[in-house]
Design goal:
402 residues, eight-stranded mixed β-sheet, six-stranded parallel β-sheet, elongated, binds cytidine-5'-triphosphate
Length: 402
């Protein structure tokens, strides 16, 4: 999945021959799962039609402050457009448009939108080779980058003038690749390795039976996906579940029993920055699992259970640099019990679920949690979908490294 998926992209098109390539650019953004809106300078409409771009972007295209042909016309709100976008791309950025961006000469909707935008702005220059090297153009590059705009350098090749050299707008594929790489590299968890445990564990009674629980693994999976989307590399150690993490940053290791989960965690723990124990690990397992299927010969059956190793506590003992997050599911004295677990398991943060809260717990799509950190700072959260709880947990990690 592209990092552009779900992103709101505002494409600003200025009047150069390379504008015809923006039809492909819009298609690529849409294919990557982005929502695209287009603002054009009046001159760019000579090179590509608003109809083409609105058809491809599935959104109206704007180029003037209001539509003169419409009676009772409403103004095209450049402030709203600028605030809507996750980022803006100005492609092609002509010498004229860049100069106006640099000086703040606000004589068209594109420049007004650019000046209103609070989001990152990429610009992809396009012009003839001598124009590209002119001191005034170079001055625009410098000013625009000093303002924090990100330049997508022009490429070298045949130009519309018939000359050959530097100045061709980067190809649409390269613009997309440039932006994707830039976003990835700036993600807040880029370079961080995170271990996540998820799902239930199954403890064998005999070769065909086990003791398990109802955990679906969704909480752990949501955490893994949210962290991966913020650039982290994830080792997801999952008990038996039907859910699958499809993300290039997530490596899933399937285990069955608590002991297997424990061993896998210890194999990876030394090399991770963060560990999040979201698995519902069995606390007890059959002491002597039968190697043969148990026959129903007796009227009653007693199975002796022994404690499993507490994986989280073992990681707490071992940790040096790792930020360690655990969960607690409590029914009484919630806060006190959770605080005791922070100390006992040497945690940095605990996510407390209280079964007393309506809408919280195993079988709901929502959860209501309280965060308690190792200094016992307590932060109750609202009832929200589990995906958003996962996001809150990831934000805690981002804050820790900020
Ligand atoms: N956990 C673990 N290994 C275990 C048991 C629990 O890693 N063998 C982790 C869970 O992944 C979770 C936290 O410990 O992060 C949950 O603990 P919880 O079940 O609430 O409490 P326990 O510590 O097991 O204590 P108790 O059941 O007595 O409340």
């Amino acid at each position: 999945m592209s990092v552009l998926s779900g992103k709101k992209i505002l494409l600003g098109i200025s009047g150069g021959i390379a504008a015809y390539k923006t039809a492909s650019l819009v298609r690529l953004f849409i294919k990557a799962g982005a929502d695209v809106r287009v603002v054009m300078t009046p001159a760019s409409k000579d090179f590509v039609t608003p109809l083409t771009l609105s058809t491809l972007s599935k959104n109206p295209v704007v180029s003037t402050f209001f539509n003169e042909e419409e009676k009772d016309a409403e103004w095209n709100n450049h402030v709203e457009l600028g605030l809507w976008a996750d980022f803006m791309v100005i492609a092609p950025a002509t010498a004229n448009t860049m100069s106006k961006m640099a000086s703040g000469t606000c004589d068209n909707l594109l420049i007004a939108t650019y000046l209103s935008a609070k989001c990152p702005v990429y610009f992809a220059p396009a012009m003839d080779l001598d124009m590209y090297k002119h001191p005034s153009t170079l001055a625009s590059f410098t000013s625009l980058q000093k303002f924090g705009n990100i330049m997508i350098p022009a490429e070298t090749g045949e130009l519309a003038s018939g000359l050959s050299g530097e100045g061709r707008m980067a190809e649409p594929e390269n613009i997309v690749a440039f932006i994707e790489a830039d976003i990835l590299q700036k993600l807040p968890l880029k370079g961080k390795k995170i271990l996540v445990t998820a799902g239930p564990t199954y403890e064998a009674i005999d070769p065909v039976r086990f003791i398990g629980n109802h955990s679906s693994g969704k909480m752990g999976l949501d955490i893994a996906l949210k962290a991966a989307n913020q650039g982290a590399e994830i080792i997801l150690i999952s008990g038996p579940t039907h859910l699958q993490a499809k993300h290039q940053n997530i490596q899933t290791i399937f285990v069955t029993s608590a002991q297997e989960m424990h061993d896998a965690c210890h194999q990876y723990f030394d090399n991770v920055d963060v560990a999040i124990a979201a698995a519902a690990v069995a606390d007890y397992r059959p002491k002597n699992p039968s190697s043969q299927k148990i026959k129903k010969t007796e009227a009653t059956l007693q199975i002796e259970l022994e404690k499993t190793t507490d994986i989280l506590a073992a990681l707490g003992q071992k940790k040096n640099k790792q930020f360690l997050i655990g969960f607690a599911l409590e029914t009484e004295n919630e806060i006190e019990n959770a605080k005791a677990k922070i100390v006992k398991k040497n945690l940095d943060l605990i996510v407390l679920n209280s079964l007393n809260d309506e809408g919280a717990g195993f079988k709901t799509q929502t959860n209501k949690v309280t965060f308690i950190d190792k200094n016992f700072h307590t932060e109750p959260m609202n009832l929200k979908p589990k995906e958003q709880v996962a996001e809150d947990i990831i934000n805690k990690i981002i804050q820790h490294y900020a």
